């Protein structure tokens, strides 16, 4: 007996030493002390205080952090149904409220198997503090790694219990459960919404038992259209079995009555992703067949697709995202929802063909705040900043460059009424043709040339002013394509939709070019405001030139020569007071790999790009012939406007309906400032 006790003592001391070494080696002790703050996500609201979701303090790049970046939302225990809490504790750790974080009766099983013996507190440590270390959430496996992790959990679990108390530990646990298999979700809120479409407070006993039953293998919940019927049915039967096991545990321990048990087992659950057929009733209810629900959709919270952009902007402002508790974005929740619906194919223009990407951005002309941002690839959103096409798709801007060209020319003596012949033109050795393939054979004004998108006039205006145009494009953040030898007046420079929207915003912003930004206010985890840099705005145009360019764009919509007449306000919009001035310009590259539209109103600027980010395939004919990108910018008329008109600055008069400088005034643009 003495020898046995000596071995137990030695093993205990050895395990404690191993656990202490594991805690020190991973830096886990300090993170345990700050675990509540680390697991509390960044609350994100729009500029009117409407919730947009949350952002995890998560893994950035290759650095090991609390959790991988996933959409999540934390809720207090009072926001979780009693049925779920009962099922979770009974199934995972029935003595949770009586031990100090380690259940000695289950410890041998935990050490020997590496799973199944952990307490809720130990699971919290494994899923968060120790994630990315040892054998969990890594590609490494081995008994020594498992033993070291378990020993580290054994040492840290009592510290967590003492530091936070059992109720807080339970709250942190249910909000960080690893629903990795369900669309990269975690926590009870995301599980309840993704699986059943309900709030966690409304989970029934049957639904709670189903979710808790999934915890050992949440990835088995996923099913695709190509999953064989027998495989899908077997998978759903396994989930049904796990649900029944959980309910039986609750009944056998006297935690629910016989009536509650019978009601739960006889409920034919229909998770949103699945379509299941049942037979029988009561305790004889059984699954006959199950498959993926073809009508299933699961849109993430709006901030999900922007979370890396927010983190990037926080770091650029010199702020550590871990210190941030709440951010107010310049985003408008209603505009964001409307833009997302359009970009993901639910709007008036319909779904995008497979492989066709779209990026769209709306900015406020008063300072460059981003009002809405949405991207898609075949209809799927992504939180990967490299797939946020509205920000990252650097594509040739085509004819959307022409208003920038003409604005540069307006600062060099030209006006909207300056005339040029629409005839055969050359740029070096290259013959310039119009998109129509024909020439008008007469002189046309810059105003008409822009409305008709005539390449010949653009090259005639741009060739002697190419240096000035390149300086403007550099200042606006556009990038030169060294491999394209054609005239920059035809849109050979590359830019993302967000940069194009910012450039167009300068026409309604008095000539100021403001760098787009998402952050309006930031507070730390204690609610104290954190400093943000002032919006970066630089003069790009003389204010007379900016107004003349704005008027040029509105003429491209309103005049008889318009190439986008469908953007004119309808009778209903006029009656609703939505007939504010709107100017727009479309563009399509010669290889038709890109189609664009950029637009501006007195308050907003918007750019839409549709195409192949890699430039390998052409956009389907219908998308550019029907001016799909410009039909998207019609959304601007639906947004509430505080600025409904743009007042003309001193020095502007109208001749033949066009805004031009008063006689004798020769506006000059300031020297562009490169970013």
Describe the model.
This is peptidoglycan glycosyltransferase. Helices cover 37% and strands 15% of the residues. With 675 residues, the chain is an alpha+beta fold. Strands 7-6-19-18-17 form a five-stranded antiparallel beta sheet. Strand 17 and strand 18 form a beta hairpin. Helix 4 (82-92) crosses helix 11 (229-252). The longest helix has 25 residues, at 2-26. The N and C termini lie far apart (78 Å). The relative contact order is 0.09. The model is unreliable at 61-68, 180-184 and 378-383 (pLDDT under 50).
Keywords:
675 residues, alpha+beta, four-stranded mixed sheet
Number of strands: 21
Main beta sheet = 5 strands, antiparallel
Oligomer state equals single chain
Helix content: 25-40%
Main structural class? alpha+beta
Summary of the model, kept short:
With 675 residues, the chain is α+β, with helices and mostly antiparallel strands.
List the helices and strands and how they pair.
Blueprint: H1 2-26, H2 28-33, H3 35-39, E1 42-45, E2 51-55, H4 82-92, H5 107-113, H6 120-129, H7 143-164, H8 166-174, H9 187-196, H10 205-214, H11 229-252, H12 258-265, E3 274-279, E4 286-292, H13 307-316, E5 324-329, H14 333-343, E6 357-364, E7 370-377, H15 389-392, E8 395-396, H16 402-410, E9 419-421, E10 425-427, E11 430-432, E12 443-445, H17 446-452, H18 455-462, H19 466-475, E13 494-495, H20 497-508, E14 512-514, E15 519-524, E16 537-539, H21 543-558, H22 571-575, E17 583-588, E18 594-600, E19 604-611, H23 621-625, H24 628-632, E20 652-655, E21 658-661
Parallel strand pairs: 1-5
Antiparallel strand pairs: 1-2, 3-4, 5-15, 6-7, 6-19, 8-13, 9-12, 10-11, 14-16, 17-18, 18-19, 20-21
Helix pairs in contact: 1-7, 4-10, 4-11, 6-7, 6-8, 7-8, 10-11, 11-12, 16-21, 17-21
């Amino acid at each position: 007996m003495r020898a046995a006790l000596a071995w137990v003592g030695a093993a205990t001391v050895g395990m404690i030493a191993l656990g202490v070494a594991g805690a020190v080696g991973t830096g886990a002790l300090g993170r345990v002390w700050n675990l509540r703050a680390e697991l509390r996500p960044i609350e994100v609201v729009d500029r009117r205080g409407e919730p947009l979701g949350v952002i995890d303090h998560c893994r950035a790049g290759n650095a090991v952090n609390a959790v991988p970046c996933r959409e999540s939302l934390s809720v207090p225990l009072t926001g979780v149904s009693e049925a779920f809490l009962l099922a979770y504790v009974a199934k995972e750790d029935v003595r949770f409220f009586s031990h100090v974080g380690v259940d000695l009766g289950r410890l041998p099983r935990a050490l020997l198997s590496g799973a199944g013996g952990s307490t809720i507190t130990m699971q919290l440590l494994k899923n968060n503090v120790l994630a990315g270390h040892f054998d969990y959430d890594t590609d490494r496996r081995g008994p020594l790694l498992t033993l070291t992790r378990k020993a580290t959990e054994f040492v840290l679990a009592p510290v967590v219990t003492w530091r936070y108390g059992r109720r807080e530990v339970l709250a942190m646990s249910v909000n960080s459960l690893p629903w990795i298999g369900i669309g990269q979700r975690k926590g009870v809120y995301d599980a309840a919404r993704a699986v059943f479409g309900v709030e966690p407070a409304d989970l029934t006993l049957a639904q709670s038992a189903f979710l808790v039953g999934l915890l050992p293998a949440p990835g088995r919940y996923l099913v695709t259209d190509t999953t064989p019927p027998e495989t899908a049915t077997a998978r759903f039967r396994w989930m049904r079995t796990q649900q029944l096991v959980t309910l039986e545990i609750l009944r056998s321990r006297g935690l629910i009555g016989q009536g509650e048990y019978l009601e739960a087992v006889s409920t034919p659950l229909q998770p949103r992703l699945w379509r299941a057929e049942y037979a029988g009733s009561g305790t004889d209810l059984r699954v006959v067949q199950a498959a993926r629900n073809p009508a299933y959709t699961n849109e993430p919270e709006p901030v999900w697709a922007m979370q890396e952009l927010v983190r990037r902007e926080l770091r650029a402002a010199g702020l550590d995202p871990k210190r941030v508790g709440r951010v107010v974005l310049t985003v408008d929740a209603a505009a964001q929802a409307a833009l997302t619906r359009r970009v993901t194919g639910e709007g008036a223009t319909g779904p995008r063909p497979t492989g066709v990407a779209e990026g769209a951005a709306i900015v406020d002309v008063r300072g460059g705040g981003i009002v809405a941002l949405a991207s898609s690839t075949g209809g799927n959103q992504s939180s990967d900043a490299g797939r946020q096409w509205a920000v990252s798709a650097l594509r040739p801007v085509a004819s959307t460059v022409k208003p920038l060209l003409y604005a540069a020319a307006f600062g060099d003596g030209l006006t909207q009424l300056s005339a040029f012949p629409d005839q055969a033109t050359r740029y070096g050795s290259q013959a310039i043709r119009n998109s129509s393939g024909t020439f008008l054979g007469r002189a046309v004004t810059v105003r008409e040339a822009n409305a008709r998108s005539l390449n010949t006039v653009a090259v005639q205006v741009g060739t002697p002013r190419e240096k000035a145009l390149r300086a403007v494009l550099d200042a606006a953040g556009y990038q030169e394509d060294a491999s394209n030898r054609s005239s920059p007046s035809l849109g050979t420079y590359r830019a993302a939709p967000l940069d194009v929207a910012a450039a167009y915003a300068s026409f309604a912003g008095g000539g100021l070019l403001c760098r787009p930004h998402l952050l309006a206010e930031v507070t730390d985890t204690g609610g104290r405001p954190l400093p943000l840099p002032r919006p970066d705005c630089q003069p790009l145009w003389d204010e007379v030139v900016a107004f003349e360019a704005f008027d040029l764009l509105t003429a491209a919509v309103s005049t008889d020569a318009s190439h986008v007449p469908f953007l004119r306000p309808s009778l209903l919009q006029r009656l609703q007071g939505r007939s504010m001035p709107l100017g727009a310009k479309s563009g399509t590259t010669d290889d038709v790999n890109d189609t664009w539209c950029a637009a501006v109103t007195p308050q907003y600027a918007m750019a839409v790009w549709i195409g192949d980010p890699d430039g390998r395939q052409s956009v389907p004919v219908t998308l550019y012939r029907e001016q799909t990108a410009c039909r998207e910018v019609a959304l601007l008329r639906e947004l509430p406007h505080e600025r409904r008109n743009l007042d003309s600055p001193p020095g502007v008069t109208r001749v033949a309906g066009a805004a031009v400088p008063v006689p004798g005034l020769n506006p000059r643009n300031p020297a562009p400032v490169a970013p």
